[in-house]
Amino acid sequence: MATQLHENDQGFTIAEPERLFIGGEWRAPADGTFLDVVSPATGAVGARVAAGGPKDIEAAVRAARDAFDNGPWPRMPIAERAAIVRRIGALLRERLTETTWATTLEMGAPLPMARAVAERAAALFDEYADIGEAYLIEDVRARANGEHAVVVSEPVGVVAAIVPWNGPSLLAALKVAPALVAGCAVVLKPAPETPLDAYILAECIEAAGVPAGVFNLVPADREASDHLIRHHDVDKISFTGSTMVGKHILRTTADRVARVSLELGGKSAAIVLDDADPELVVSRMATEVTMNTGQICAALMRVIVPRAQAKMYGEMLADAVAKIRVGNPFEQGTQVGPLAMKRQLERVQGYIEKGREEGATLMCGGGRPSDLGDGFYIQPTVFANVDHRMTIAREEIFGPVASVIAHDGPDDAVRIANDSDYGLHGGVFTRDVDTAYAVARRMRTGNVGHNIRTIDWQMPFGGFKQSGLSREGGVEGFRNFLEIKTVYVATPPSTLAKA
């Protein structure tokens, strides 16, 4: 199927959009309710899917619990699970164009970006199959007294995988793929605004032969989501989203000491030193401001530059950002699409106004494009003369709004970068790798790039402070879905004696 370039073309097919996938069956929602998927490109309803309620969450958790406690999946050799998970990846690759189109419809990412995200999501199923097969599940260790212990990694149990709307197919894969390889049962709860790609994933999982109940799909809004995180049969919650909701999950699950991993917000800083290449800095920062319309938790939106060069960087970045094309995400040549939702547009507009009120200098953008109709579009925006104590420099805007902040040397730059509730990503721009590494080690953040923001999902990703708990990606992301058990034995079991 060729990639479709217009919203009213049929770019994907979902067999049962008005049903939920629970216990290996497509079921009508218990309360007969539905979610309208609004296209951010036009503000009009583009699709309709089932909305799960508390009764549906109950059924999904019950199915997952039974599949984990009594079904074959957790007891399969990991190589057998890995083979099935690879089939999921292969089926997703067959439907890349569909996932691309669905993602653009539901959250407004330009088609090339949506395609890249879909490709990366499919690849994660292969990568986690490889990681699982290579992982030492049963580790025989000698003890000081001459006896032995077997340190066993076992699946954590029933997983609630809760994903946001800003990169839904990739963020679902980061949870579902390692959880399945580990032997867990999963209830996937996509954001109510962006459920379409999750239906394609569910169809691929069903077609791959995953046993009934091991994977369940329940798109839902707040009430049902809260029922999911409170459910005592959910062993593990893997959540990506806002820091506010992450704190709520921690409070809610504390009484039962549920396992929780959280990938939350960010207000990441790019430290620019005086020997950096200005052209490189500006080209990379212009991409940071505009990629996914600024709706990336790790984006480097605080650009901390030498005071003597602050005017230059403000002007250069504004000039570069102003040239980037905002347009309909279904049209070729569009570099920046709309924000994902009307409320997100209103949020970004509020922060832009706050920046003006607090005295920052608006260098470019700040308004809505006049030629793009009723979609949720905003001009990419650069502020200069930003004090690091201003609201726009401290709070996560989640839109295409960058702040240029002056520093008085490397020590001051690190101080400003670390003066944040968040610590998700960072960058150090300098011609010297040793300097970059030394500065990176001083930054209180979970990831740092030299002259770029890099995310490699074969490596651990996550944050310090209020940017989250635990890590996703790579072998660390696999360990998220394992419990550790130590079995003490006088001699190794015969099945492990040669290990």
From TrEMBL:
The active site is at E263. Keywords: Oxidoreductase. The keyword DNA damage does not apply. InterPro entries: Ald_DH/histidinol_DH, Ald_DH_C, Ald_DH_CS_GLU, Ald_DH_N, Aldehyde_DH_dom. Belongs to the aldehyde dehydrogenase family. Residues 26-487 form the Aldehyde dehydrogenase domain. Pfam families: Aldedh. It comes from Rhizorhabdus wittichii (strain DSM 6014 / CCUG 31198 / JCM 15750 / NBRC 105917 / EY 4224 / RW1) (Sphingomonas wittichii). This is Aldehyde dehydrogenase. One of its GO terms (molecular function) is oxidoreductase activity, acting on the aldehyde or oxo group of donors, NAD or NADP as acceptor. The keyword Oxidoreductase applies. PROSITE patterns: ALDEHYDE_DEHYDR_GLU.
